[in-house]
């Protein structure tokens, strides 16, 4: 078992260290820099979004929360404002309907 763990560690570690050594002077252009900077946000969205649609019990309330969060995000509000706005809109929707 230890040999498997060590082997897998080498297989994942060696390409990372090799790329750091060989490409340390390579500076990507603005497009690639933006692309790589946005990967964490895209992965987080992909992991979270399927559960967002079923989080409130009804699809309609979930869509209201998603719409509120999207609107506040497009208005470039802070993350706290986006989350609180979505939560308040969902509670408001559930209270009205």
Q: Which structural category fits the helices and strands?
A: mainly alpha
Q: What is the typical, i.e. mean, pLDDT?
A: 91
The number of distinct helices, counting runs of at least 4 residues, comes to 4
Q: Give start-end ranges of low-pLDDT stretches.
A: none
Beta-strand share of residues: under 5%
Helix content: over 70%
Radius of gyration: 21 Å
Q: How would you explain this protein's 3D organization?
A:
- The structure is a single chain.
- This protein has helices at residues 2-22, 30-52, 59-74, 79-96.
- It has 97 residues and is mainly α.
- The protein contains 4 helices and no strands.
- The protein is elongated and about 60 Å long.
- The termini are far apart.
Task: Describe the structure concisely for a colleague.
This protein is 80% helix and 0% strand. By secondary structure, the protein is mainly alpha-helical.
How are the SSEs placed, and which strands pair?
Blueprint: H1 2-22, H2 30-52, H3 59-74, H4 79-96
Helix pairs in contact: 3-4
Main attributes of the structure:
single chain, 97 residues, mainly alpha, 4 helices, 80% helix, 0% strand
């Amino acid at each position: 078992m230890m040999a498997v763990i060590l082997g897998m560690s080498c297989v994942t570690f060696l390409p990372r260290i090799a790329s750091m050594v060989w490409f340390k002077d390579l500076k990507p252009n603005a497009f690639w820099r933006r692309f790589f900077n946005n990967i964490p946000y895209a992965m987080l969205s992909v992991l979270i979004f399927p559960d967002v649609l079923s989080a409130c019990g009804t699809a309609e309330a979930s869509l209201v929360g998603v719409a509120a969060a999207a609107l506040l995000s497009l208005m470039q509000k802070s993350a706290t404002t986006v989350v609180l706005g979505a939560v308040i809109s969902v509670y408001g929707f559930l209270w009205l309907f």
